[in-house]
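Researcher: Structure prediction, please.
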Amino acid sequence: MHPIVKPALRRAWRDLNTVQFGMAPAHAMVLGPMDTATGSFLDLLDGTRGMPLLREQGRQMGLPDGHVDGLVDRLARSGLLDDTSAGGPAAASLRERKQVMERMRPDLASLSLVTCAPGGAVGTLAARRALRVQVRGAGRVGVVLAALLASAGVGEVVVRDLGRVEPWDVAPGGLPAESVGERREHAARRAVRRAAPDRPPRSPAGAGAGDAAPGLSLVVLAPRDGLSVHAPDPVSAEPLIDSGTPHLYAGVVEATAVVGPLVLPGDTGCAGCLDQTRADRDPTWPRLVAQWRSGRRHRVPACDQALAAAVAGLAASHALAFLDGLATPAAGVRWEASLPACDWHAKPVTAHSACPCGAAGKTKGERASEDEEPHATMAGQQSHAAGLAGTWRAHV
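Model: Predicted structure follows.
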């Protein structure tokens, strides 16, 4: 073990005997009492020394036998300690890729704050390299989202869409202006490769092209037409439900951002559940949806660049949390925000008893229907999402 106090947390003394690690309340922690000699010893926990050397240097500083081991154990149990030698063979292999590690130092620091175990951050980063994600939609949201996932170390991110790039598909961090007129899939593939810290593996011909390709850890549905996110078609999602493939909706419709739900087939409400619940509340809902879907095509969507970027960022964060096995507040929830206020609020997607997805049997009695439950806050969804994350993990 080569322990290091997590460098992402700034350290400051509250008084002569109490030290605070971190500034932001979400991850900050106060430890005490701590004497001056122990406080000075903290500087030696920089990841360059193994435990035998640390014990020897602790004795030279006048610390009693066992004190160093007790301090390291205390810091580890508090989630304040990392280990520059932990994480297993995959992490060791990743550490050898110096350029990749330098590129991803901010990501590694961020992961260290949400993974408590020493070595958990680099282990998580290494695990991402084995994951496969498919993004359906190569517009302002989809390509930026795919690029974010690739830049975060997801090993393979495939974008699927038809047609050619239009001028209004161009977005910062997504499709560049010079790609106008090219096939969307080809242009999106280049954008993803540019964003990746390491050259991703090439897929076999046709891999990931199907509605429920095997081996996908997650499918993100980010259609250029926001209607498919506002009122997702249950029929088009059936292959994902049948194959048990987790999928996340993300998009913009009429200057309203939508992220979610993250559908965990058989566990959380799906597109069919959402459709059934809306029809129960509003008998005209099926008629409206039929008209919207059969209306005039080729409309240029109302999709503000900044709002599209916000959707891509939030959806990528939720996707990464799920892929990493952490709690995500998008499970069974739609997050929405509309211009100009851009105030995010949550709308639970309740499992419906008439939907054949089977989620109603597991969630019966857990939540009221959407029209009965007040809008939740982002923090308020953590407990439910945490329970689901304990069951669902991204599969390789």
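Model: The chain has three domains: 1-85, 87-128, 200-389.
Researcher: Thanks, that helps.
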